[in-house]
Amino acid sequence: MASGWAQGKTGLTRALSSLGATGPEVVFEAGGHRKAIARVMYHPEIIRHPDSCPALVLNADYTPLSYYPLSLWPWQTAVKAMFLERVDVVAHYDREVHSPTIALKLPSVIALRQFVRPSQFPAFTRFNLFLRDRFRCVYCGSGKELTFDHVIPRAQGGRTTWENVATACAPCNLKKGGRTPGQARMHFGREPIRPTSWQLQDHGKSFPPNYLHQSWRDYLYWDVELEP
């Protein structure tokens, strides 16, 4: 009996050691005795919840579909696209999901098999407007309390278009009121333009998300200063 217990302990210890970590004791009851088998700490990649394992989506040319917001799919969508053969898996997480018949490593980077041509011009939305102006007030440069301002006020015939709407902080917007920048004697940092989708994506590279998985880094190029 002791020999069988020792063999079982050795086999389990080897299996747990193959995970390459240590941690809390695993304790078994046998014959009225408590026996410590091994100390195990699973790698964070292995025990992380699947919902925290999004896949970076690349176009067929292996560039991200979008930089900001970053093109990410939840793991369920990525796995479905895999089985429908719509994507190629470029990199994996260590995290697996299991069914009764299969164990599958979750994809961390996928590439579309068919190229998706981006539209030339982005939608005219508040988010894209802020991104065009790099999330800064065009009058003072503040990044707080952002709203949007009609350069030529609507009361003076100004229209709600890319060329007449700019990002402004609340204090500057209040100060300008229903006047033009010239009438309010406020310096206008840059002329509003209708940006291309490429320009917005280029601006998006300046705003990396708080979390970047290691496997994503080869496919992302962020305009941030490198540490020496």
Characterize the structure shown:
By secondary structure, the chain is an alpha+beta fold. It folds into 3 domains: about 1-40, no CATH class; about 45-110, no CATH class; about 125-185, Orthogonal Bundle (DNA Binding (I), subunit A). The protein is about 25% helix and about 20% strand. It is built from 7 helices and 8 strands. It has helices spanning about 1-15, 45, 75-85, 125-130, 170-175, 180-185, 195-205; strands spanning about 25-30, 35-40, 55-60, 70-75, 85-100, 105-110, 145-150, 165-170. Strands 4-3-6-5 form a 4-stranded mixed beta sheet. Strands 1-2 form a two-stranded antiparallel ribbon. The radius of gyration is 27 Å and the shape is elongated. It starts with a helix and ends in a 24-residue tail after the last helix.
